[in-house]
Amino acid sequence: MTRKKLIAANWKMYKTPEQTTAFFAEFLPMVAGHSRDEIVICPPFLDLHAAVEAARGSNVAVGAQNIHWAKEGAFTGEISPAMLTAIQVTHVIIGHSERRQYFNETDDTVNRKLEIALENGLTPIVCVGEVLEEREAGLTEDVLRRQCTRAFNGISARKAAKLAIAYEPVWAIGTGKTATPQMAADAHMVIRHEAEKAFGKEFAQGLRILYGGSVKPDNATALMSEGEIDGALVGGGSLDPASFTRIVKY
Ligand code: PGA
């Protein structure tokens, strides 16, 4: 089965609305007509409107970096799914390791956020991955299995149709260290197996599993040529339009 790759930019807490508009002005002409892969930019919440306006009518989609699990309510500082879809945001990153590490996100909140994202027709990119101590202790598979099982809990295959997963070994994020294509492929197979248990074989075969962690223009080709890797979630390498273009066009 061929899976269209998803190349997603995670800008984290970088760029103002003005800088967002400037990025798109440079980036869009460079990727115009590129239809081999799906391209998504995930800027900070405050930049989403500028991004959607700039990307209108182009081959680039816009995603958020987080979402709240409730429809609405007394949740100071949070953003609801309907607020995102109201401004034509189509994708959302869920459970990024920085959110798990600094903002107390758990497998349970990831599950709740995944559920509401799917209910609202968003394409969720659920992040999983082990920290260095877990890899060194031989626990990578256990961690991935646990994160996947809990994230998928109570969600049906029909509902999960748009799901994408990003395997991001935490030790590779922002460190310049990447997993080798083989290490990523091994992890992706564990994730695909968990998806098969939760959603069935056919679903698992079609599931896109992205790799993230220090993806740069000079390692993108090797990573994206691995059959198990169905795209990339790119942090630092996505902030410059020329750099991200080279990754998209690996
Ligand atoms: P990085 O970040 O590409 O800067 O390592 C990836 C991510 O955190 O999604």
Report on this structure.
The protein is an alpha/beta fold. It has a single domain, classed as Aldolase class I (TIM Barrel, Alpha-Beta Barrel). 43% of the residues lie in helices and 15% in strands. It has 11 helices and 8 strands. The protein has helices spanning 17-31, 48-55, 81-86, 97-102, 107-119, 132-136, 140-152, 181-199, 201-206, 217-224, 241-248; strands spanning 6-10, 38-42, 60-64, 91-94, 123-128, 164-167, 208-212, 231-234. It has an 8-stranded parallel beta barrel with strand order 1-2-3-4-5-6-7-8, surrounded by 6 helices. Strand 3, helix 3 and strand 4 form a beta-alpha-beta unit. Helix 1 crosses helix 11 (241-248) and helix 10 runs parallel beside helix 11 (241-248). The longest helix has 19 residues, at 181-199. The model has no long low-confidence stretch (mean pLDDT 97). Bound molecules: 2-phosphoglycolic acid. 2-phosphoglycolic acid is lined by residues 10, 168, 173-174, 212-215, 233-237. Residues 10, 168, 173-174, 212-215, 233-237 line the site of 2-phosphoglycolic acid.
